[in-house]
Write a structure and sequence with these properties.
Blueprint (H helix, E strand, L loop, with lengths): L1 E7 L20 E7 L5 E11 L2 E8 L12
Antiparallel strand pairs: 1-2, 3-4
Length: 73
């Protein structure tokens, strides 16, 4: 299971005088998501990176679950 939890703050910066919000429909507050992963996932091969407002999660499979190439001569 992969659990992602965090908190969104939808407030605009107080120093932004040019910003005008007419309607704000973005979710604010705490959140939690749980994703079921396959059995062949390597728990030590999971990494995450947050950049430009997007969370990138990489999940590697166990070595024995990787596809094998068999040469035929």
């Amino acid at each position: 299971m992969l659990t992602i939890a965090g908190e969104r703050n939808g407030k605009l910066p107080a120093d932004d005088e040019k910003a005008a919000v007419h309607i704000n429909e973005r979710f604010q507050g705490r959140f939690r998501r749980v994703v079921s992963l396959p059995d062949d996932v390597d728990p030590n091969g999971v990494s995450a990176e947050y950049r430009d407002g997007v969370l990138h999660v990489s999940v590697k499979r166990r070595e024995e679950a990787q596809p094998r190439r068999i040469s035929i001569h």
